[in-house]
Every structure is written in structure tokens, then in C-alpha cells.
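Hi, here's the filled form for the chain we discussed.

Project: internal
Contact: R.S.
Residues: 160
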Amino acid sequence: MASDPHQLHPDHLPTPFTAEEIRAGCPPGRTVRSLVIEPGQDPIVRVTQFVSTDPQGADQAFWQEAPDGARLGETQRRRSTWIEFQGHASFRADVTQVDEEEIAIPAGRYDCLRYSTRDGHAVRTFWFARSAPGMPLRFEEREGGVITSSSTAIEDKRLG
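And the returned structure, exactly as it came back:
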């Protein structure tokens, strides 16, 4: 790892949060509900919940719900290290642009770092809320200017 804890690779931009900032921002009980929209499919709500944490990483539970809150399918679990979480936001500098943007979404109003990364005609945009270290609270994928997938946080709940 480079001397800057925000930069994981020399040819990548700094990440919005360090592994330690993500750990502090994702205590047990933090639950993010995101509305996922993909063309030709019914909207779903993807739920991510931090079940337990320790200095090395976190155990998460994932499930899907219908927009009315009805549970769809089984709960899945996964363990990740804090550095793995940080790595999800590490993007190559030569194809990524970072801007500041304020967004208003159902989960609230946030000052964000917006990372837009290009791959041919595809553009993936991630909005990382400065006050909510961890996963992007909004995501959008466009192919040739047309939205092919989006995810927007409708709730970001923390216990306590």
C-alpha cells in the first residue's frame, strides 16, 4: 500500500475513504436500503446490513425486498476486510474523473465525491457521501448515454 492511506495503487486515484474511516462509519446495525432499477425488470430494494465488526473486517447480511417491503429470497452473508471495502472504490486515474456534488436522494441530502469511470462507451458513476463512509449511496451505469442500471439509497440507518 502507498504511504497515502487513501491511495491503494500508484496508477489509481485516492479513494473517498480509508479502510479505517469505513470501519468507523459502518458499525454493527448500519443498514442501507437501495432502490435498484434495471430496464425490463421490476424495481427491487437491495438491503445491506453490517452484522458484526472487528478491527480486521465486517460480517454483512444481504437480502432483497419488493418496493412494498416484502422479503424476496433468502438472506445471504459475506465477510470482507476493511481494505477490501476500500478497494471497491479504487479506480484507475487514466479513466476516472472525481468531482464534488451535492445530491438529494430519499435517504437524505449529502455532499458527495462523485467518481465517474469510463470503459469504452460505458460510464459508471458512484456518489460517495462524505458523511457516510462506506458504500456509494447512489450508483448509475450508462451505455452510450442510456441508463442501464441504477441504485439509490432510500434509507441509511445506524443504531444508537
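Let me know if anything looks off before we file it.
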